[in-house]
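Task card 7
Instruction: Convert sequence to structure tokens.
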Amino acid sequence: MKSIFGVVALAAALAAEPAASALTVTFVSGNLSSRVVDVDEVAQTVFIRENHDGQGPVVWLFEGMDSGNWTITVRVNNVSPEVWNSFGFELLNDDYSESDDSDGLSFDQGGSIARTSTVFATLFVDEVSSRDYLNWYDGVIGTGGGAADFGFGIDPPGDLSSFYLVNTPNLARVPEPAAWAMLIAGFGVVGNAMRRKALLI
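Output:
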């Protein structure tokens, strides 16, 4: 009889403990025609697939991420009419302020998770005291379905607080025909002025 009460007491104690918070990743805003998120809490991985049909930042809200180093993979498809020459990611606190080194949130700063891109050759990292920012460049994601995968780690704050992941495609700046015409005309004016000055001397 004593053992039955012990089992019942143990079951009641376990039922009274709050369940571990599950990680949720929620789309907040951005120009996406479709999106998919897969979370594996055992392996501590998050896979996000985005189809961008416009420009501007895409914002994701992460809530309930346990401590540890999480591997994040973001696959982007460019179905917009613009060519992208770089792609950036930034971590923001739950009040949209920049993540600094004191908040415990980082892109696995100093950790072992590789930062990778299937398209861009160079990575600019800004992890000074007031920001967590990654920007890949030296490559192009073309229009009409050009794609790239990005991989990086996130080391969340230990208190399970929420935070934002913001990613932004950056346009390849190609001068308009009118800009080319003005540039050529400007060279002509400067060349003509230099020629006239040489004839006067």
